[in-house]
Amino acid sequence: MPEQIVAKLKKEINDVDDVKLNMIATEEGDVTLIYFSSLIEKMTLQTMVSIPLTNNIKQIHQMAQYVDPKDIQGVIKRLNAGQTLLFFHETNALLSMDTYSAPTRAITNTETEATVIGPQDAFTESLETNISLVRRRIQSAQLKNENRIVGSEANIKISIMYMDNIVNHKNLDDLRNRIDQVEFPLFTDISVLKQLIEDNPLSPFPQYYMTVRPDSICRYLIDGRIVMFMDNSQLAIVCPTSFFEMFVSIEDYYNRWTTASLLRMLRFFGFFLTIMITPMYISALTFHPEILPYELLLNLQESRSKVPFPPLIEVLFIELIIEVLREAGSRMPAKVGQTIGIVGGIVIGTAAVEAGLLSNILIVLVATSALLSFLPPIFLMSNTSRFVRYIFILSAGLFGLFGQMLAFAWLIHHLLSLKSLGTHYMTPGIPRKPSDLLDNVIRFPTKYLAKKTGISRAQKKQPEGK
Amino acid sequence: MSTANLKMLNRYHVIFLAQSIMIGTGILSLPQKLSAMGYTEWFMPVLFGVVATLTLWPMVWLCSKYPNENLFRINEILLGKVIGKVINLFFVLQFIVFSAGIISNYMHLIQSTALQEQTITLPVICLLLLLVYIISGGIKSIARFCMMTFFITIGMFYFTRWAIEKGEFSHLIPLFNFDWQEFFDAFKKGYLSILGYELIMFYFPYIIDQKKAYRHSLIGIWISIFLCFFTTVVSVIYYSEWQLKNVEFSVLNLFKAGEFSFVERIDIIGITLWVFLILSSITAYVWCAKLGVDSLLKKKRNYQLFLLAAIIFLIVRMPFSREFQEKLFTTSNYIGYMLIIWPIFLSVIYVVRKKKVQQ
Q1: Cα separation values, A140 from A136, A176, A350, A377, A404, Å
Q2: Lowest mean pLDDT among A4-13, A134-143, B169-178
Q3: N or C terminus: which one in chain B shows less Cβ crowding within 10 Å?
Q4: CB contact under 8 A, B123 and A293
Q5: What is the least distance, in Å, from the CA of A212 to any CA of chain B?
C-alpha cells in the first residue's frame, strides 16, 4: 500500500527534478520528506521540519496537518504551493507542513509613481507583502480579502480586498461573476486579467485604476471601492473608477489645496490640449488660414516656406519620429538611452528643420504635446492620449476644424457611454452626488473631503441601534 | 413597452433633453426670421416661451394618461389601428425630413464658412455615422450627450462680449411699433427655432418621475428661451435694421466682432463647435423616427437605424435643385407646428371617447 502511493507520486512527478525525496530515520521509523526545493529555503526546512523530526517528533504531530494519501491531485497541489509532505512508513500516515519560503524582493521605492511628499513604499510582486502593506494602514476587521485561483493552467492566486461595511455588494458580486467567467491559461500580470474583465475591452481607455502605491489603494478602499491583487504582479486594480480619477495623483491630498487644484487643472486640461494642439495646426494651415491673425500666419508660413509636404504629412512625420524616440528610449539600457534620446531628439529636430523637412513651430508644438501626454499619473492614460491624438490628427486632415469637432463629439459620447464595473465612467463630469464636485478639478480643503464619492455607490450608513 | 426597467431618465436628463433639442440651427438665424418686426423683435423669444409653456401642458397631460406608452402607441389606441398607423408613418416621414433639413442647413453653413474647397458628401456620412453611434446607445445616452453639450457649448456666450461692447442699447426702445401682419409673420417664421420640446411625448414613458416631468421640462425650455432671448437682444443691439433683415446667420456674425490677439475668425470655431448642438437635436428626432419604425413593423430589426441614416443621406444629397430642397424643408418645418397642436386634438378625442366608455 504505501509503496503504491509513493510509486504513484513518483510517476506524477516524473521528470520534475526539483522535487526532492529525503528519507530520514526517526523515533517512529522511517519518514520520507517530499518537497519542491525551488520553493523552500533550506534554512526553513531545517528549522521547521528536519530538526523537530529528529529531536522532538511530538512537535511535528502538533503542527502538521493530516492529508488523505489517496488524493494524489490534492497532494500535488500542496507540493506546488510549497508545502513539505512527510510520509511515515510505519503508520502509513501522510502529513503536510507549510514551509513556503520562495525568495521575494524587498519593499522598495516606487519608480513609476514617485511623489515628493508622502510615503515612499510601493507594492512588490509578492501577494502577502502587498496585503500586509495595506493591512498595516487599515487596521480594521472589516477589511476583507478573498483569495481566488485564476488561470486554467498556471493556478495563480488573486486576492479581492474590500471594506465589508462600506463596499457596494452588488458591485462585488458583479466582479466575482466576471472573474469566475474568465478562462485564460496564464496571467503574467494583473493587467491581463483586467483586460478580460473590463466593461468594454475594445475601448482605448483604461476602465480600472491601476497603481503600485499602497497609500492610494487605502484611500480607495475606505471610499468603498474594490481592490484586486495578484500574486507575482506589482500593480493593484481599483474598480470602479472614473475618467477623471486617471488625472488624480495621491500627492494632491498631501499638497496644499491650492497647489493641488492647480496641478489637477494642468493635468486634466493637458489631456485635451495634447490631443488638440497638433490637429489645430493642421486644420489652421490646411483649411482655415483665415482663422489666424496676420502676424501669426506670416510667422507660420515663413517657417514652413521650405517644407515640401502638406501639413498632415508633416505632422504625421514628426509625430512618428517622436514615437520612435520614445520607444527606442524605453528599450535602450538606461545609461545609453538618456544620451541617445536627448542627442537624437536635438539632432533630428534641428537637422530636420534646417534640411527644410519640418517647420520650427511644429517642433515646438509636437514637443509640447509629447510632454503634455506624460502628465497623467496613470501611464495607461498617457498611452491612450497618444492613440486618441492620431484619431484627431487624421480627422483634422480630412475636414479641418469640423473634423476635429466631430472627433471631439465622438470622444465625448464614447466616454459618456463607457462604464467601469457598471458605473458611468464620466461620473464626476456628471456628478452622482453634489459632494463629488468638492473633489474634482478643484480639490477643496481637506476637511470637506470626508464624504464618500458617488462613484463607489457605497452603502448608506445604518442608523445606530438597528 | 410596459416593463418597469424602461424608466431611466432622471430629472437632469429631462431638463437637458428639453433644453438641448430646442437649440439647433434655429437659434443661428432667429434674429433674421423675426426681423419683420424690426427692432421690437427682441421680446419675441419670451412670448415663445409662454406659448411653449402653454402647449407643453396638453402634451404632458395626455402622456400622463398613458404613462407607459409613447405617442405612436397613443395614436393607435385613440384613433384605431389603421388610422393610427397611417398617422405614425406620416410622423416618421416628418421626423426624417425635419432632421434632414437641419443637417442640410448646417452642412451648407459649414461648407460656406469652414470647408470651402470640399463637397459635403464625406462630412455628411461621418456625421450620420456618429449619429447612428449615439442613437444606438438609446435615449439615456442621448440625454447624457445633451447634458455634456450644454456645458461644452455654453462657453460660446463669451464670444458675444464684443458685440455687446460695440452695440447700441437705444435700439431696444420703442417697444410696440409693429402691426399684426408683421407680428404673425415673425411668429410663424420664428417659432420654428424653439421647436423640439414636443418630443417629450415620445420619451415620456422613460421618465422616472413622471409627475414632475412638466416642471423639469419647463426648466429646460426656459433655459433655452433665455439663450434665444439673449442672442436676440444682442443682435438687436449690434445690428442695424437692414442688417437684421439681410444677414442670414446673424449669431455667427456676432462672433465675428470678436477680437483675440491669437484668433481672427472666432465664428469658424463657433460654427464647428455647433456640431454638438446639431447632434443633440437630430439624435433625438431620429431616435423618435426609429421608435416610430419600431411601432410600424412587427419585428424589431437592427438595420433600421442605418436605413434611416441612409434615407437622410439621400434627402440631403439628392440630385434635386436647392430650391426644391428648401421648399421641402420649409414645408416640413410648418408641419412641425402640427405636432404642437396634435396633442390638443388627441386630448379632445380622449375626453370624448372616455365618456363613451363610461356610458
Answers
A1: 9, 23, 59, 29, 51
A2: A4-13
A3: C
A4: no
A5: 33
Instruction: Report DSSP letters for A46-99, one per residue.
Output: IIIIIHHHHH-HHHHHHHPEEE-TT-HHHHHHHHHTTEEEEEETTTTEEEEEE-
The b/e string for B131-168 (b: 16+ C-beta within 10 A; e otherwise) is: bebbbebebbbbbbbbbbbbebbeebeebbebbeeebe
pTM of the model: 0.89
- Alpha-carbon distance B139 to B144, whole Å? 9
> Which CATH fold would you assign to the domain B3-350?
Amino acid/polyamine transporter I (1.20.1740)
Sign of CA dihedral A61, A62, A68, A72: negative
Chain A: closest CA distance from residue B178 (Å):
40
Question: How do the domains of chain B map onto residue ranges?
Answer: 3-350
What are the two backbone dihedrals, phi and then psi, of residue B93, each rounded to the nearest 5 degrees?
-60, -45
A405-421 tens-digit pLDDT: 999 999 999 998 898 88
Pairwise CB contact (< 8 Å): B115 & A292: no
Confidence class of residue A466 from pLDDT cuts 50, 70 and 90?
Answer: very low
Nearest-CA distance from A332 to chain B in Å? 41
Asked if residues A134 and A127 have their Cβ atoms less than 8 Å apart, the reply is: no
Q: Are B103 and B316 in contact (CB under 8 A)?
A: yes
pLDDT of residue B3: 45
B283: confidence class by pLDDT, cuts 50, 70, 90: very high
Among chain A residues, the shortest Cα distance to B146 is held by: A413
pLDDT digits (tens, 9 = 90+) for B5-28: 678 888 888 999 889 888 887 888
Instruction: Please state, in angstroms and as integers, the Cα–Cα distance from residue B139 to each residue in A306, B17, B71, B202, B305, following that order.
Output: 52, 9, 15, 10, 14
Q: Name which of A276, A297, A405, A408 to mutate to probe chain B: the one with the most chain B Cβ atoms within 10 A of its Cβ.
A: A405
